Hints:
Elements: H1 2-14, E1 29-32, E2 37-39, H2 40-43, E3 48-53, H3 60-74, E4 80-85, H4 93-102, E5 110-114, H5 117-128, E6 132-136, E7 139-142, E8 145-149, E9 155-160, H6 164-180
Parallel strand pairs: 3-4, 4-5
Antiparallel strand pairs: 1-2, 1-5, 3-8, 6-7, 8-9
Amino acid sequence: MKILALAALALCACAPPPLPDYGALPGFSLVAQDGAAFGSRQLAGSPWIADFIYTSCPGPCPALTARLASMQKALPAPVRLVSFTVDPERDTPRVLKDYAARFGADPARWRFLTGKRSELRALARDGFKVPVTDAGGGLVGHTLKVALVDPALRVRGYYDGDDAASMGRLERDAAALAAAR
């Protein structure tokens, strides 16, 4: 009996702590790389990973997209990926479709979204609580943070897209959310 109690205690001590809750995302409807409307209604019910990129970015965005492309193969099927452009004037659905293909993004699981600049900036700022600014010279200042969103559209974590250990935690946390649904 004592051994069972100790084993149960050890199992409880090893369980990861619950993920933080950073709040609910507002509803949104944008345009995907295939030109179709896509938004929060299609994402509800599944965990998903969100990042902010632009296709003409000189370095960090392609590196982040490549990391997520590798991760896409390892993640359980219910986990989806969503890349929001921060440069919607240049990142048309066609441009996003070509960019997604360049990285082997599975269109059934990974959407690249564009829309009105004001809507994208408001979603980043007010929903995800991440900064997006005009950096001048055609560059856009934005975060390399990646967000994990639960099936109820609540942000459950932020991860450094430029840090392998942080991205490893993201992969584990996303898999845990998928298993819990």
